[in-house]
Automatic annotation (TrEMBL), chain A:
Assigned GO CC terms: cytoplasm; nuclear envelope
Protein family (similarity comment): Belongs to the protein-tyrosine phosphatase family. Non-receptor class myotubularin subfamily.
Chief location bin: cytoplasm
Residues annotated as domain Tyrosine specific protein phosphatases: 302-346
Subcellular location: Cytoplasm; Endomembrane system
Active site: 333 (phosphocysteine intermediate)
Domain Myotubularin phosphatase: 121-497
Pfam families per UniProt: Myotub-related, PH-GRAM_MTMR6-like
Keyword RNA-binding: no
A Gene Ontology molecular function term of the record: phosphatidylinositol-3-phosphate phosphatase activity
Name of the protein in question: Myotubularin-related protein 6-like
TrEMBL record, chain B:
Keywords: Acetylation, Cell membrane, Cell projection, Coiled coil, Cytoplasm, Endoplasmic reticulum, Membrane
Recorded superkingdom: Eukaryota
Family per similarity comment: Belongs to the protein-tyrosine phosphatase family. Non-receptor class myotubularin subfamily.
Protein name as annotated: Myotubularin-related protein 9
Species the sequence originates in: Sinocyclocheilus grahami (Dianchi golden-line fish)
Gene3D superfamilies reported in the protein's UniProt record: Pleckstrin-homology domain (PH domain)/Phosphotyrosine-binding domain (PTB)
Topology relative to the membrane: Peripheral membrane protein
MF (Gene Ontology): protein phosphatase binding
Any single GO CC term annotated in Swiss-Prot or TrEMBL for this entry: endoplasmic reticulum
One of the GO BP terms on file: phosphatidylinositol dephosphorylation
Domain Myotubularin phosphatase: 123-498
Length: 639, 550
């Protein structure tokens, strides 16, 4: 299998621009190589990233092929011969619907590491150590072996933490009263107030059913915290949804049956609403010649930012209950693996500065998403697709974190490129971490033996994801983040949803600039030291250099060639060239009344690019320089 | 008139000042002829000094004998004063009302303000048209400086010296002036060194319904074209609006009479529409109770971002004609004092790296706004809290600043100045101790004798101590044309102005400081390395000399 089609045109999504090149179809990637030898742009699209392929009807210039990717890339090829187009189309259809896990890229991907390195990669994140960091086990919380064999709950990890007073019969009884057996367990322990964040699924209460073991279970959680007489039970669903569930024998906790609980709905919509919302959002921001009005109306109608705000509001509620009131909180939704994961993870991140570091953020994802069974395979459409199961739940979590980085630029060790890179790999199926729906399934697949860990990969190049403004002392002054949830603080995340639409991005990046300076500072510090040593040989003693920034522990390897930060740091000359070759986001909308009569000075080909208005096909000339690629994606990395 | 007549109660004790995101201050309220002052008379609490001219509107409320005045300022801030005593409160309110709406320009604060700093460089003398003409002369001899408007009789809103094509005599200029709205005949706005193309600006031609023409006007603008070349006329109005203007004696250039020009219509809104847009936007930003949907819908309904996009797009189009198409451009709308200036000045920021320095930006504002006759006094008489009875207020200049900010956001390393300079200009255009933005045109400023009786804003800004605040630490001079993206996703709400008083910026400010710190540390290290290298090189040479001697 290795199709090669030449003379393929790649059309720009927002302008009438196009480039010609060769299309290669390999077992893992669809690759477009621009013919123009000077700029030679390359686009690598991983098959797993392709969400849909569409063959449009034949035009005079060829057969259009529209490819939509899960990382929000949209490419539009025009293939000269229909036959070639059909071949590519049908091959892709086959390739992007793997039927078994073995076909996923992770099982063939080999970063040239030996077994030992691979194992070390998987050992980087240790959840037992994480619970220890939180101060668990302790006098009130213990590790239980009740789920060692996945007998009580198939979608939970083997190791779960419960109150000391919750005996096995209570746990088992409670699990029978909860959807999918997901009984209340500890996910975060706020040591300072001994308050716990627990998670579970909805109770099978119907209209009147009750379960004494479950009631005991909640009481045990309550008793484990001496600081508060009550616990909060947060049902993250809208009340209507929870009511509707009662008819199906599920539902929510009746306050009369549980002593000392404070029950609260927070109104986050379900996976279907979120899927539709993202769809609408993308349709809006993917429109050509988008007017400001349509953009803002589209943003509003999609409801996307409203949902993001709802998740943030819930997380803030959780963090306040724990840190201010010192109360323990039990969070659930229906199954307890979507909204519950969002709220628990985001809430913990607000409370604990550790989760705002690179390593800590990995731990957080490992704990609240991977180990507690967020169904990555279903939600991200990895295998055996059921379109009704797909939903951007994890993407929303990443976006909430991004919104926080905008309000607190110094609170996070990582920059948004870290979030975008994680998003990329949740869908890439290149690493084993996100494959499957639960820990049990991952063990069955022997992922640790057969695939590599994303975390090791990201840590190995963490200098690309650093936030240069990160201040460790910020965590001391702001152990708990208190973001504002005024509507105007929520912004559209252009660098995520329009990440491949380069023309929309600022042409000079402050982030990149400051990162470069920081790197340069480290080098200069080294040079200063070296010079001083030499001077000492001459008997000259210079005053010791006072480092103004706290020295970083890691030493920096040279920046690799093709990383998400936008390729190697460009030299001054290249940057200039690039700026000079700006492509514009605006399209011709209406033709100006053409001037009548008179000959026109046409010195060369017509200007078809860079159009802010009605100059299309008008007189005038210029030589279009080739476009320098500055890929935002990881195209090259994934090969 | 004495200010004392307007101040019935000059001073009230026990007044409480409330501002969002700032601590409450209790103290003594004093009214002077030009300021509202609130001081707690304690060392470390901030005093409030508010220019009456900065007050856009006031509201008063009473609960028992405790009165509350809500003061809404032109810089968009809203403050609340709780004043004990009904009579005091009423007196204060009516004084503020009267003092903030003084009609006579000569009673304004700039005429009373005496600088506490030494004027090193007089801003009134900093920008002389002859100087910029010298630069032009060094590049081309196609242009001359005309004194036809020496006594402001040809065009009252133009300055006395104008740059026009060399081959057009003053008599033709007068005729062309009679064919243009307000006498604003086409004059040079910008000369593009790279290819000799120019931006000219004017007001609409007075073609009327029967298609009047004017040979001199045609000759004048054709004189700016090189042989065989063509140009673009950018009319900032839609074709429909331009058509309607004919009925009132205005109009647009007919193709038949201007065969060498191609006309493009854009849709920049008229001033009253823009004022409405500002009012709606600020209302949306100030309502903290909005749900997400309501906020987005209010933001959309204000149309502010649409206006920004349209203005920026038109400016990019003009710049594109010049730099990419190699064609000269004539820009006009109706009067040529609003949208025209937005377009010509923004195009220059895109095209000309000099305009992205502080000095160059000052020159641009001086030349394309103040000298070019943007009626600041009229446009900035009221801001977003104006209610009813608007005359000709419009945030034309603020929109320009917003567009500059958008470009600055997209090219954060290409400007010598930072956002603070833009915000400062917005403030001073609406209320200031300096005379720079008083009056509506050069002629009026002359009559007011501003240069003798008031201090220029530039005298203050250009002091090294002040300049510091406006410098962009990321600046690296860049000689390129910078093409901003005008996609809606790329244009942001200017939070620095519109959310300025509605959010806490502590975290953002600290992050900015950290960035400055990294940049400065880099410079310091580089200096250190250089000096050590020199020291080492010297020692090595000495060493070698010693060795050689041996």
């Amino acid at each position: 299998l290795n199709h090669i089609v030449e003379q393929v045109k790649l059309l720009d999504r927002f302008s009438n621009k196009s480039v010609t090149g060769t299309l290669h179809l390999t077992a893992t990637h669809l690759i477009f190589v621009e013919s123009n030898s000077t700029s030679a742009q390359e686009i690598w699209i991983l098959h797993h990233h392709i969400a849909s392929v569409e063959k449009l009807s034949l035009t005079t210039s060829g057969c259009p092929l529209l490819i939509q990717c899960r990382n929000f890339r949209l490419v539009h090829f025009v293939i000269p011969r229909e036959r070639d187009c059909h071949d590519i189309y049908s091959s892709l259809l086959r390739l992007l619907r793997p039927v078994s896990y073995d076909e996923l890229y992770a099982f063939s991907y080999n970063p040239k590491q030996n077994d030992q390195q691979r194992e070390e990669g998987w050992q980087l994140i240790d959840l037992a150590a994480e619970f220890e960091r939180m101060g668990v086990p302790c006098d009130q919380w213990q590790l239980t072996d009740v789920n060692r064999e996945y007998k009580v709950c198939k979608t939970y990890p083997r190791d779960v933490y419960v109150p000391i007073t919750a005996s096995k019969p209570i746990i088992v009884g409670s699990s029978k009263f909860r959807s999918k057996g997901r009984f209340p367990v500890l996910t975060y322990f706020y040591q300072e107030k001994k308050a716990a964040v627990c998670r579970c699924s909805q109770p099978l209460s119907g209209f009147s059913a009750r379960c004494l073991e479950d009631e005991h279970m909640l009481q045990a959680i309550s008793k484990a915290n001496h600081n508060s007489r009550y616990i909060y039970v947060m049902d993250t669903r809208p009340k209507l949804n929870a009511l509707a569930n009662r008819a199906a024998g599920k539902g929510y906790e009746n306050e009369d049956n549980y002593s000392n609980i404070r029950f609260q709905f927070v109104g986050i919509e379900n996976i279907h609403v979120m899927r539709g919302s993202l769809q609408k959002l993308l349709e809006g921001v993917g429109t050509r010649s988008l007017s400001m009005t349509d953009y803002l109306v589209g943003l509003e109608n999609s409801g996307w930012l409203r949902h993001i705000k709802a998740i943030m509001d819930a997380a803030i509620f959780l963090a306040k209950a724990v840190t201010v009131e010192g109360a323990s909180v039990l969070v659930h939704c229906s199954d307890g693996w979507d909204r519950t994961a969002q709220v628990c993870a985001l809430g913990s991140l607000l409370m604990d500065p550790y989760y705002r570091t690179i390593k800590g953020f990995m731990v957080l994802i490992e704990k609240d998403w991977i180990s507690f069974g967020h169904k990555f395979a279903d939600r991200c459409d990895q295998l055996d697709p059921d379109p009704k199961e797909v939903s951007p739940i994890f993407t929303q979590f990443l976006e909430c974190v991004w919104q926080l980085t905008e309000q607190f630029p110094q609170a996070f060790e990582f920059s948004e490129w870290f979030l975008i890179q994680i998003h990329e790999h949740v869908h890439s199926c290149q690493f084993g971490n996100f494959l499957g729906n639960s820990q049990r399934q991952r063990e069955d697949l022997q992922l640790k033996e057969r695939t590599y860990s994303l975390w090791a990969h990201l840590l190995s190049e963490n200098q690309n994801y650093l936030n240069p403004l990160f201040s460790p002392s910020f965590a001391e002054s702001h152990p708990v983040l208190e973001p504002s949830t005024q509507a105007y603080h929520f912004k559209f995340w252009r660098n995520m949803y329009n990440q491949y639409d380069r023309s929309m991005h600022p042409r000079q990046s402050i982030l990149k600039h400051v990162l470069t300076l920081q790197e340069s500072n480290r080098e200069l510090e080294g040079t200063v030291q070296a010079l001083k040593t030499k001077l000492q040989k001459f008997g000259v003693n210079t005053s010791p250099l006072k480092p103004q920034t706290p020295p970083r522990e890691c030493s920096l390897p040279p920046r690799p060639q093709s990383l998400i930060l936008g390729a190697p740091l460009l030299s001054r000359k290249e940057v200039q060239q690039e700026e000079d070759e700006e492509v514009f986001g605006e399209e011709a909308r209406e033709d100006a009344p053409a001037s009548t009569g008179g000959e026109r000075t046409v010195e060369g080909s017509s200007a078809t690019e860079n159009s802010y208005g009605e100059l299309m096909g008008s007189f005038g000339s210029k030589n279009e320089p080739g476009v320098v690629t500055l890929e935002f994606g990881v195209a090259r990395m994934t090969c | 008139m004495e200010f004392a007549e307007l101040i019935k109660t000059p001073r009230v004790d026990g007044v409480v000042l409330r501002r969002p995101f700032m601590p409450t201050v209790e103290g003594t309220l004093c009214l002077t002829g030009h300021h509202l002052i609130l001081s707690s008379r304690q060392d470390n609490t901030e005093e409030l000094w508010l220019l009456h001219a900065n007050i856009d509107s006031t509201e008063k409320r009473f609960v028992g004998s405790l009165g509350t005045i809500i003061v809404k300022c032109k810089d968009l801030r809203v403050i609340q004063l709780d004043i004990p005593g009904m009579e005091e409160c009423l007196n204060i309110a009516s004084s503020i009302e009267a003092l903030s709406t003084l009609d006579s320009v000569s009673l304004m604060y700039p005429f009373f303000y005496r600088p506490l700093f030494e004027v090193i460089e007089d801003g009134w003398q900093s920008f002389v048209p002859e100087e910029s003409f010298k630069d032009l002369e060094s590049m081309t001899d196609e242009w001359r400086l005309s004194e036809v408007n020496k006594d402001f009789s040809v065009c009252p809103s133009y300055p006395s010296l104008l740059t026009v094509p060399r081959d057009i005599d003053d008599e033709s200029l007068c005729k062309a002036a009679s064919f243009r709205h307000g006498g604003r005949f086409p004059v040079l706005s910008y000369y593009h060194k790279k290819n000799g193309m120019v931006i000219m600006r004017a007001a609409q031609p007075l073609t009327g319904t029967n298609g009047r023409r004017c040979k001199e006007d045609e000759k004048l603008i054709n004189a700016t074209l090189c042989a065989g070349k063509r140009g673009y006329i950018i009319d900032t109005r839609t074709i429909a609006v331009a058509q309607q203007a004919k009925a009132r004696g205005g109009g647009f250039e007919q193709e038949a009479n201007y065969p060498q020009w191609r006309r493009i219509h854009k849709a920049i809104e008229r001033s009253n529409v823009l004022q409405d847009s500002l009012i709606k936007l600020v209302e949306a930003c100030n309502d903290q109770s909005h749900s997400m949907d309501r906020w987005l819908s209010k933001l959309e309904a204000s149309n502010w971002q649409s206006n920004v996009k349209e203005i920026l797009t038109t400016a990019c189009l003009a710049a594109q004609c010049i730099d990419r198409e190699g064609a000269s451009v004539l820009v006009h709308g109706t009067e040529g004092t609003d949208s025209t200036l937005q377009v010509t000045s923004l195009a220059q920021i895109i095209l000309d790296p000099a305009c992205r320095t502080i000095r160059g930006f000052e020159v641009l504002i001086e030349r394309e706004w103040l000298q070019a006759g943007h009626p600041f006094q009229q446009r900035c008489a009221q801001s977003a809290y104006s209610n009813g009875k608007l005359r000709s207020e419009a945030p034309v200049f603020l929109l320009f600043l917003d567009c500059v900010w958008q470009i600055l956001r997209q090219f954060p390393c290409s400007f010598q100045f930072n956002e603070n300079l833009l915000i400062m200009l917005f403030e001073h255009a609406y209320a200031s101790q300096f005379g720079t933005f008083l009056g509506n045109c050069v002629a009026e400023r002359g009559k007011l004798q501003l240069s003798q009786k008031t201090v220029s804003l530039w005298s203050w800004v250009n002091r090294p101590q002040e300049l510091e605040r406006f410098l962009n630490p990321l600046y690296e001079p860049n000689n390129l044309v910078i093409w901003p993206s005008v996609a809606p996703q790329s244009l942001l709400l200017w939070e620095g102005v519109f959310l300025r008083w509605n959010r806490s910026t502590k975290c953002l400010d600290e992050a900015y400081q950290e960035m400055v710190h990294i940049i400065e540390y880099n410079k310091e290290l580089q200096n250190k390395v250089n000096s050590l290298r020199r020291q080492l090189a010297q020692l090595e040479t000495e060493d070698k000399m010693v060795a050689d001697l041996k």
